[in-house]
Amino acid sequence: MQSIDESTPFFDLVGSVRAMRKLKPDPVPIEMIWKVLNVGVQAPSGQNKQPWKFLLIQDPERKQWFAERYANAMQERFGLPVDPAKRGDKTPKGTLASIYHQMDHMAEAPYLLLVCGKRDWPFKVAEKDRVGLAPPNYGAVYPCVQNILLACRTLGLGAALTTMHQVFEDELHAHFGIPDTYGVVVTIPIGYPIGRFGPVTRIPAQEKTFLDHWDAGDS
Amino acid sequence: MQSIDESTPFFDLVGSVRAMRKLKPDPVPIEMIWKVLNVGVQAPSGQNKQPWKFLLIQDPERKQWFAERYANAMQERFGLPVDPAKRGDKTPKGTLASIYHQMDHMAEAPYLLLVCGKRDWPFKVAEKDRVGLAPPNYGAVYPCVQNILLACRTLGLGAALTTMHQVFEDELHAHFGIPDTYGVVVTIPIGYPIGRFGPVTRIPAQEKTFLDHWDAGDS
Description:
Two copies of one chain form a homodimer.
Chain A (H helix, E strand, L loop, with lengths): L9 H4 L16 H11 L11 E6 L2 H19 L15 H11 L6 E8 L19 H17 L3 E2 L9 H8 L5 E10 L17 E3 L8
Antiparallel strand pairs in A: 1-2, 2-4, 3-4
Helix pairs in contact in A: 2-5
């Protein structure tokens, strides 16, 4: 694949925005992050309300705090020991290996970006501990997130989103002073990547499209 | 603003993706739509499940069917007569004027693109007629939609998303044979635009970002 930089056309860029979960601990100038986030905020939103806020974690102790809870949440969900040395023959392979790499080294990423959204999405959530709270504005925040991923790729920064923080979101809100009026939609560790950006593999749109009427039998 | 084409870098493109609601009825080759949708499907999704489907409406009668229900839904919500001649001194101005233009001419757009998402989003919706049905996968569909808007802009196509179809979504499902396993996330009328793409206006990211801790008092 050709090298990508700020002069690369969008069509040549979009197919190589892979989830990059292995990051170098090397510092990344904050000017690059501002550039990324200022691309993020170009996203559309209903009535141009721009209902996003960013929490950028760079402090080592706060990154460590987040990483520990994240690892516990992963253990709770997948049952794999937090300590890599204790995983034995359960050591994950393939994509799961890179997900665990992200977890094991999360505190070392130069930045943990939490993209937050105002809770004005017009659906109530009937979850055990969330009844009555509207979800964050996914319809605005996710386009912003996509812009962020495209901008990271343009600048050669590795990024990959995760939503596992939802397991400890109440604690997260308390620790970072996030008000109930916002939800944390995604966490994106950002840094220079280890390894190369390969192309993504996707089913062609033609196989995902119905003309004028859904095909009977396809569900 | 410089002219934009397929050679334009992403950073020079992203700030001019305005909601273009005034469209020419001129036909658009379907090859352009495949190009747009194949950019859309490059978006990331959890476990690469690609939980999107597209319903592309091009048949004049089906567009008319959609446009009529859309206009009724708008009237229900905003109270403005469906017939422009009966609006009198209530004729809308500014952004609302363009929203009404989109409504009045919806059946003339060459394409109405319905972007659908699999109902696997992990929140139940407690709405009067939707209890128990999970919402469509916003976290995958909206990044795909953002790619679609960026691709339309690159090719000089006008596009603007709306979610007003939700008012008549049950009827929509029945008419187009959309199974309950999918939700219609956005409707995007697409065509050559009337008027020019101007730059978007956004609050800079620096004013939307907290470093390491949310600012007390900001909510």
